[in-house]
Description:
Blueprint: E1 5-7, E2 10-12, E3 43-45, E4 51-53, E5 64-65, E6 71-73, E7 80-88, E8 92-99, E9 105-112, H1 117-132, E10 141-147, E11 150-156, H2 163-170, H3 175-195, E12 198-199, E13 208-211, E14 214-217, E15 224-225, H4 245-248, H5 256-271, H6 282-291, H7 303-312, H8 323-327, H9 339-344
Parallel strand pairs: 2-3
Antiparallel strand pairs: 1-6, 3-4, 5-6, 7-8, 8-9, 9-11, 10-11, 12-15, 13-14
Helix pairs in contact: 3-5, 5-7
Enzyme class: transferase
Pfam families: Pkinase
Protein name: mitogen-activated protein kinase kinase
Amino acid sequence: MPLKKPMMALTLDDDDDDDAGENMVAPDGRAPAGRSLRTQASYKLSDTMTFAQGGVVLRGSAGMVGDDGTQETDIELADLHKVRQLGAGVSARVYLVEHRRTGEQFALKELTAMADTDARHMAVNELKIAHNAHCPHLIRFVDAFFNEGKISIVMELADGGSLDDVIKRAGRIPEPPCQGVGVSMLQGLQYLHRELHQVHRDIKPANVMIKAGVLKLSDFGISKQLESTAAFATTQVGTTVYMSPERMLGEEHSYASDIWSVGLTVLEAYLGEMPFPIAGSFMEQVSLVVDGPAPAPPPGSSAEFEDFVAQCLQKDANLRGTVTELLSGPWLINADDGEFGRWLQTL
Length: 347
């Protein structure tokens, strides 16, 4: 089917004038009414969700590029039929949707646009990252809409569910496919860290999605954009049990905090359960993570795997392995990111 509608400019800036965003309407006074953000004739979407004219074209990964350099898409929000809910959070719900005319399926994430300021900034940041992410191990952005007080983000559908689903189904994942898990996650992080200067900050099995056997990091809504590699994030968000010690303590943190979460996620896949016990309170969890011993693979694991986990789970962030060091280390240097997908077919 030919692609028809031009993708007009959607600009995302860092305007912090929060009062300006509360009306949630286009500059001509009309609500966008479910049309694509990109068909609103060069709207500018600030961090406060204010729509204003002007801006530059952001080129997404869906559709075709026209002669004028704009992206073309034939998707409208009304064309997407909700099949079922896939998940829900405090200010967001994720649905499996199907394009009525083509039958193609996507994941639709709905965020309440009138949520608190932090939630609005998270939503805009997710759009920023998604528009700029071009990596096979990151979930692909398709389109975005504003309708009835919600921002709807259309992403590629991870037809294989999440790594968390696989762990629950399989019980545990053997070491060779766990190498594929490690390689895929680190390659996704390499792109986030090097190209986009992003800290993911919420890496866990539930946010590692599977598309045709390929592992992809998702849920960048709580990522913090860093101005440079020397910058640090200080906000505590994400899933507590996967937080690094420095985040638990509310200290400044950067890319190394993602490495801690990678180590926990890979070890959880191998063990079939979370390496740290789930405490009854935040302070108890802090004590377990900060004061207790770092978890390690059980006896019988390879020495290379033990070394990988030890590098990831160093309490001192400065001593943790970097993405480059871990990918070139003995456990992953010859690993194949397709190993997980081949193992998955045996389940």
